[in-house]
């Protein structure tokens, strides 16, 4: 057993990481699906979308051959509507709320239709939006992820000059660096960022990290307001023996390396264990298998009834041949010559329910051993508590505290997205960015007296 890269041929990599949700093959196919829509009054699909995209309207615009109108309807509500059409867990959002589910019929393929409506608009940079005259106000946005980009675009449309400070070399945040490559390609992420900034009035400064190359105090001094969309990104540790052995990798770093270095350059083990069963764990497990791992075992301390990922995501892992071990928790990672060789697990059973309603796993006293050469930790992510506390931002266990308007305890500093909620969906971050922009516009209006909405 060994951890090596370049396990597969170029053709195998291309096949394994091809689009898992391919688009409609033709305009006619999209029209057939669009015409299934019942155009519900008070549509439940719209209500279940965190950004409140008018789903019946954009689908009707497809049926009436109005591609620009359809794209505008989507992107005016969710400027990352193209990316969200590829990565959103629609089975628990819009498509999960489709009335066809009540008729034992397949729901409308809303995500696929949304992709049909937005993809060309994004790649060709259709001028769907126009900026209002400059308000002579400047706002700094920290983080070019979904929350930051959404906030920046909403502000720029109102005539505010926005500068985004991004620690990586590319924008997109989680979309670019933290999601499985077969869901959304780096090329599309780059095109989506370019589309957003094509509006004008948005400058992105890369390799600028809060607390290192740029300080919050300086931003407060230089700008009229600051929006923090720094997300989360610290991997939660297992706190078990052997965690520092070669071959132990956190899922965030593993996925980041795939997205940054490419498939052939990313090493993977022969027998891989993935700890956890959230969306990140699924992405890590399936990609390990697609990189050429012979065996991938997902270790989860509860049962399928308590999984944090969706059933659709779990099905992907099963179809890829990942093995699932229920009621198992890591106890120790063993190795030889500094390299991982075994994962010792505790056998668990479910006890009483905790505050979230899920039953608590309890040790049975039994253990078992897995022969592995790589362990990927996907036990959750933690906020940047040191960075946040060091900037005198009120927080709760590292999650920034904001009031009803999105304002932090620091005057003129606003925040939203994963750094506030601890980690939700991309679409939730987009809405947080919209909410933050609205709050900032009101703040600037109140303190300057100019009419932002005139």
UniProtKB/TrEMBL annotation:
Sequence ranges assigned to domain 4Fe-4S ferredoxin-type in this UniProt record: 28-58
InterPro entries: 4Fe4S_Fe-S-bd, DPD_II, FAD/NAD-bd_sf, FAD/NAD-binding_dom, Helical_ferredxn
Pfam families per UniProt: Fer4_20 (PF14691), Pyr_redox_2 (PF07992)
GO molecular function term, any single one: iron-sulfur cluster binding
Cross-referenced PANTHER family: GLUTAMATE SYNTHASE [NADPH] SMALL CHAIN (PTHR42783), GLUTAMATE SYNTHASE [NADPH] SMALL CHAIN-RELATED (PTHR42783:SF3)
This protein's name: NAD(P)-dependent oxidoreductase
Native organism: Larkinella knui
